[in-house]
Amino acid sequence: MAKGIKSWFFTEVEDPAAKKKKNKTTAAKKIEAIETAPPSSESIPEVKGGREGAVSQKFVNILFKVLREKDLDGFDYMEFKKSLQSLKKMDMDIETRIKSAYAMAQTMGVDKSRLLETANFYIGLLKQEEEKFELALENQQQKQVDGKKSKIAQVKSNIAKKEAQLKKLEAEVAQHKQQIDTLHQEIKQAATKIADTKNDFIASYNSLVDQIKQDMKHINDYLP
Questions:
Q1: Which pLDDT band, with edges at 50, 70 and 90, does 141 fall under?
Q2: Rounded to whole angstroms, how far apart are CA atoms 221 and 8?
Q3: CB atoms near residue 37 (< 10 Å)
């Protein structure tokens, strides 16, 4: 194709009625221009969460690259779309443009069934890309989301184990503190008992020594 097929879809001037449909993407508006194309019942579902989807230049380039590489020979839907793009420059309504482009297609030996058949062929190509994208997305889901969810579950399990260990350690610490209090009490009692025993011994010792000294004094005093 002389010009990129992307311009056949994304540079058309919108119909006045189409301009009022602000909630539709540019790609959706262009597809509506082909009234004979069958509606798709296999559109990609919106992913839960995140912002509302928007046409991405990155993905548009990827998809149109596939269409460009797999473009069928001869006049088909793509050439029909190119004709519509050219007629867009003229003051025609959509019905007139469709019929005019179709008249051109007939001169090339192409009928309505061929246009629909080849249009569905390109939808099939895009469907294949969707499947590849879904597979890549699933891999990213498993890696970036599901894998981290598993990691969260593992971390929670580790937290629960450590909390149980912490409770056990706290109980052991409390037990050790109680043991220390008991030992302090036993030390106090033992120290008191030892002191009492020491005092009793000293008292007994002094009593005996005093008696012996008293006797020694008497001996010295009363014996020649």
A1: confident
A2: 146
A3: 15
User: At residue 33, does pLDDT exceed 90?
Assistant: no
Token duo for residue 141: 């889901």
Other Cβ atoms within 10 Å of 102 Cβ, number: 17
**Strand, coil or helix: what is 11?**
coil
The answer to whether 6 and 67 are in contact (CB under 8 A) is no
- For residue range 60-76, what is the model confidence (pLDDT) as tens digits? 888 878 888 888 888 98
Q: Report yes or no: 129 and 66 within 8 Å, Cβ to Cβ.
A: yes
> What six digits make up the tokens of 122?
């390109």
Q: Name the pTM for this structure.
A: 0.50
Taking the C-alpha atoms of residue 123 and residue 9, their distance in angstroms, rounded to an integer, is 14
Q: Which two tokens stand for residue 28?
A: 């959706």
Report the amino acid identity of residue 151.
K
